[in-house]
Structure formats: C-alpha cells, structure tokens
Design brief:
With 193 residues, this protein is an alpha+beta fold. It has a single domain (4-191), classed as 3-Layer(aba) Sandwich (Aminopeptidase), CATH 3.40.630.30. The chain has seven helices and seven strands. Strands 1-2-3-4-5-7-6 form a seven-stranded mixed β-sheet. The radius of gyration is 16 Å and the shape is globular. The relative contact order is 0.16.
C-alpha cells in the first residue's frame, strides 16, 4: 500500500462526503436526499462533516495517495451519541434506523462508515483505515470496536472476519421507498485484548 493514513481535518469534509456518496450512499441519501429543496445529499453531507461532532471530520481518518484522499473511515465512541433534535421529515427518516441505533453497545467505539475509491481497493487501504480506528479505540481503552455490515455482503464479512471481528447481533430493516438497501444487518465486534 502506498497510501498513508492520517486523522482527518476540517478541510477534508468535502472529500469525506464524496467518498461516502461514491462508495456507500445508503444512509446519507436516505436521510438527506430531497430533505432541503435545492440541496443535494452530497452538499449537505459535506456541511455536516465540516462541523464538530460524532458525524464529522473530528472522528474520521483518511487515506491519501499523492495528496489525494482515496479512502475514509468514521468511528466514534457510542457514549457520545446524543438523541437527535431534528423534527418533521428529518425525524421521520431517522426513525427508520432506530433499531440499528438501539443495538449499538454504549461502551463501544463504533465504525459508522468506511469507503475506498475503486482504483485503490484490494491494496490494503481499507485495512490500514480500520487499523487506525482500532489503534485509536485501544489508546482510549475502549473495550470493543463495533460496526454493521449487510448480511449478503460476503466480501465485507470476510474482510472483517480476517481482522478478528465476530457477529454479536442482527437487525432487519424492512423495505422502504427511500431505502437503497434493506434486509438484515449484522452487528460485528472486535474486543480489545
């Protein structure tokens, strides 16, 4: 792997949003697409990543090659997550994911997103990003790192299995007209040794 991994900075917000929209748009498009007239999910996501908080640059790491961000991961202590103050349509959209949030162990450091641009996949970038998160979690003395993966995503499941993650729970999201994906998600964890 020739990419290097570093903690994200506020200036990385547009790249964080672009990587999520290109590699795993399910959550962002469900929540943000069409929420504000004239605003794309990507532009709203970039704005969210530019602020402080758990869903931001502040709890993200990026992989760079030749000065270009080619991968990103976001993870945070579940204990920092606060109930949303959104109302109306935003609250209705968030409610769809309530079963997912309810499964997250409060003592976990949770990987919320991971994406690597296509030309840089299968070269160790994703592994390096996950290892950066594991290092951060273990340095904080968090007892475990968790994440969700779609049950039918065999490649991702094998990847996390090789990194020592194991299944601890399942949640099924029903079909929804806004959902790009639905079905069973597996909650995986890796415990600190």
């Amino acid at each position: 792997m020739s990419a290097s991994v570093r903690e994200a900075a506020p200036a990385d917000a547009p790249a964080l949003a672009a990587i999520e929209i290109l590699t795993a748009p399910e959550f962002a498009t469900f929540l943000l697409d069409g929420l504000v007239e004239g605003r794309s999910a990507g532009s709203m996501l970039a704005e969210i990543y530019a602020r402080d908080g758990t869903d931001s640059w502040e709890w993200s790491w990026v992989a760079e090659e030749d000065g270009e961000v080619v991968g990103a991961i976001g993870a945070y202590p579940v204990s920092l997550v606060r109930p949303s103050s959104d109302t109306g349509e935003a609250a209705a959209r968030l409610a769809y994911f309530a079963p997912v949030g309810a499964m997250m162990p409060p003592d976990a450091f949770h990987i919320a997103r991971l994406g690597v641009l296509e030309p840089y996949r299968r070269g160790g970038v994703a592994r390096a990003l996950v290892e950066a998160v594991l290092g951060a979690a273990w340095a904080r003395e968090d007892p475990r790192v968790t994440l969700f993966v779609w049950e039918e995503n065999g490649g991702a499941r094998r990847f996390y299995d090789r990194l020592g993650f194991g299944e601890i729970g399942r949640v099924t999201l029903p079909p929804h007209p806004r959902a790009l994906c639905h079905g069973t998600m597996l909650l995986l964890e890796k415990r600190r040794c």
